[in-house]
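[Q] Does anyone have a clean structure-token version of this?
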Amino acid sequence: MKRPTHDCGRASAPIFRPALAWALCALAGCTVGPDYERPALAASSGYSQAPLPESTAAAAVAAGAAQRLALTQDIQADWWTLFRSPALNALIERAFAANPDIEAAQAALRVAQENVAAQRGFFFPTVQADYTPMRSKIAGNLGGNSPGIQGDGSVIETYAGTPRSEGGTAPFNGPVIYNFHTAQLTVGFVPDLFGANRRQVESLQAEAEFQRLQLEAAYITLASNVVAAAIQEALLRRQIASVDAIIDGRRQSVALAQRQQRAGYASRLDLALQENALAQARQLLPALERQFEQTRALLRALLGATQDSELPETFELDALQLPEALPLTLPSRLVEQRPDVRAAEALLRSANAQVGVATAAMLPQISLDGAVGGAASHFDQMLWKSGKFFDLEANISQPLFAGGTLLHQKRAAEQARRVAAAQYRATVIAAFQNVADALHAIYTNADALAAAAQAEQSARTSLELTRRQWRGGYIDRLALLEVEQTYHQATLDLAQAQAARLGDTAALFQALGGGWQRRASAPESETTATAR
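[A] Here you go.
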């Protein structure tokens, strides 16, 4: 950012420079303080040291398609529709319409916009109308050669303690009551000579932009949370079904071991081992059921609904399609897409403008005031020529000594700008890391899914062969049940890997900014907020 400057005239001779600069500022106005410039960022051309593979590993299972990176493809705003789930689409639209965090972000944006409009009002003169009726009573013991006024407004003159008036007399030393009316129109104006108000408007505009980006981030975060919760629910449904199958198989193993023990073909140790395996399998179910109910509760909360409300949407892993083309934004464009990066820059812009506000507070201030009106003892006489009055006033003030307050406020504003600049750079670095983490997860979890699919296929083949042997009488039922347990465990691992791939894809869309800046039509509530 530039060093503080004054956009005022300059004289060639140093001795006349301050006077000439002040004169030009007084005539035309100027804006003190540094003009905003985006901080320089370290050049970056990618999210990893080595080039990323053209595509991920693939597996012949649901959510196992190979994904490829598309550098020239834009992120669509409704990226969640790429999962091809009508239930998910409906849930997100309902969340957009009812989530209280969205409503709060919309209200915060309107507050910031109204603050900008209010600050712009200081560019204009203030006009105020005043009317002051007054009724006064003067003590009669004041006496002397002073005039008195009767209740109808006529003047009572006193002389040597004896009151007299044309058309009547007042009692000696008696009280005098009179009415008086004053009406005036006052106009005040404070010229923005050094741009203090312009810098303040600039700061508030940046804060309004920050709130708009907070609203944008709220939409993206809400959509991402709904997608993540839907994937988690689908995973838990699959896991609960697999664990139920494991528990059922373990029960059969225990029952078979009990029969074998009674027949003398198995020992008590063999039965205890089967009972222990059943107990361990049963321990898995309560935790999964708890997570499932918590996930359903989370979805209701994201929808802004109470926990006793109906949630008809349900999700299965096989019903969620994995997007195969992944748009990837270059780092140079990521700073223009991520709402958190743009919000950090808006705060930096606001802090930069506050330096100008603090600088202008150290310079001369001018105010202009004028008033015109009338005053009379009768209301209808205020506009008579004899009752009219006017005032014109100009005030010029220059702070000379404030105990160092103004200087230190300016230094504090400069340091606040440095804080905001550092936070902006930190946000950019975190954004790059966020995208890199999502990309690494996509590739590694694709490999994990391929391995899990292979393990599940091997377990299925083993199960089929073992069933043939059991039917042929070559092995007993207990051996078959053990192979079935191995297969069910493989299905658990496969479901976890499938959900991970779906979740990684959603995380990448969020890390890239969610594409909200290209949304064709914002929700009605957001449009209302930004239009004010």
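[Q] Thanks! Anything notable?
[A] The longest helix spans residues 196-263.
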